[in-house]
Write a structure and sequence with these properties.
14 helices; binds pyridoxal-5'-phosphate
Length: about 375
């Protein structure tokens, strides 16, 4: 008699050994656990300014339409994006967050005989989407926590179909300049798709930013991903997009669900794009908050990784988990990054001045055992 397999053994091999993504601890969860309120969450790189009132009004105006399916082609949002970015609508793919785009790319281009190159300390979703489709990850060692593009190139062989580069990278905040990136694209075989993940693009100062969109003409294997979750403050609605050659957009469009973006998210993104003031306030608050946090780290004699994003990873020079837990007990949620091979760091999202101050004071008390 043959024994029947366990349910787990029925899953495809990549999924059987997959370790799920660990999100930042939700505020409500900590409220339930500790029975306290006034919790400060600096754990998911969210926009601390609160919901944009113009977005709230646009959503309210859309509510009577909820009986309808959303526009499955996202015509209006794509039109606004294409005008703003100076590219054709045919080059835009909308996703349920840019995470969905990463998954669509993996499902479109990968199979179990192929591999994917990304960096040590790179965004946790890259290994997940790779493994879920049974492909193999090849991980290039980082230099000073940042991407070593030469080491990444050295890992590429005839089985490599995809590279992921986050710029700035999460959770390190490290940033690659335009020359480095352009040289990498030039050296990359045309048979390898390059995903350039620009989730934090808006936070990078204009002098430093790459005009990555201009590279699309030259590199039909390039996919740029961006999101409304971070600087535009729409993380709860799940909407992001990619820019690519029309050929790639056409392929991704075959794989995606017909209504992957909901109506409220489409309306909100369109409204948010038109509101320059909210974006400017967001960036000014982020710059000030970054100063505030790094000055405090300096005063505490702690090192941090210089960050181009809306978060900063600080080195506590000891296993950071007990400090993370002590912060939780004081009502402050930050992000442990041991799963990124950074066991002595914590990643802090930039909050409002008051939230940052609450965190700084709590950290000071814990480190100085007050
Ligand atoms: C936050 C983040 C994303 C975007 O996630 P969404 O699905 O758009 O909310 C993508 N890449 C990186 C590196 C991120 O940190």
């Amino acid at each position: 008699m043959t024994t029947s397999p366990t349910i787990s053994e029925l899953a495809v091999p990549g999924v059987r050994s997959l370790v799920p993504y660990v999100p930042g601890k939700p505020i409500e969860e900590l409220e339930r656990e500790l029975g306290i309120s006034n919790i400060v969450k600096l754990a998911s790189n969210e926009n601390p300014l609160g919901t944009n009132p113009k977005v709230a009004a646009a959503i309210h105006a859309t509510l009577p339409e909820l009986i309808r399916y959303p526009d499955g082609n996202g015509f209006r949002l794509k039109t606004v994006l294409s005008e703003k970015l100076g590219i054709s609508s045919q080059q835009i793919t909308l996703g349920n967050g840019s995470n969905e785009i990463l998954e669509l790319v993996a499902r479109t281009f990968l199979s179990p005989d192929l591999d994917v190159v990304f960096s040590q300390h790179a965004f946790a979703v890259y290994p997940i989407v790779t493994q879920a489709v049974g492909a193999s990850a090849k991980i290039a060692p980082a230099i000073n926590y940042g991407h070593d593009l030469a080491a990444m190139l050295a890992l590429i062989d005839e089985n490599t179909r995809l590279v992921f580069i986050a710029n700035p990278n999460n959770p390190t905040g490290t940033f690659l300049g335009r020359n480095e990136l352009e040289n990498f694209l030039m050296a990359l075989p045309a048979s390898v798709i390059c995903v350039l993940d620009e989730a934090y693009y808006e936070y990078v100062s204009p002098e430093l930013r790459s005009d990555s969109i201009s590279w699309l003409n030259q590199y039909p294997n390039l996919i740029i991903t961006r999101t409304f979750s971070k600087a535009y403050g729409l993380a709860g609605l799940r909407i992001g997009y990619s820019l690519s050659s029309p050929e790639i957009a056409n392929l991704l469009n075959r794989v995606r669900q017909p209504f992957n973006n909901n109506m409220l998210a489409l309306t909100a993104a369109e409204t948010a794009l038109a509101d320059h003031e909210y974006l400017e306030k967001t960036i000014a608050a982020n710059d000030a908050g970054m100063q505030q946090l790094t000055a405090a780290f300096q005063a505490l004699s702690l090192d941090w990784i210089p960050s181009a994003g809306n978060f900063v990873s600080v080195d506590l020079k000891q296993t950071s988990m007990p400090i993370y837990e002590a912060l939780l007990r004081k009502g402050v949620i930050v992000r442990p990054v041991a799963n990124y091979e950074m066991p002595t760091h914590l990643r802090i999202s930039i909050g409002t001045e008051k939230e940052n101050q609450t965190f700084i004071q709590a950290l000071d008390e814990i480190l100085n055992d007050v």
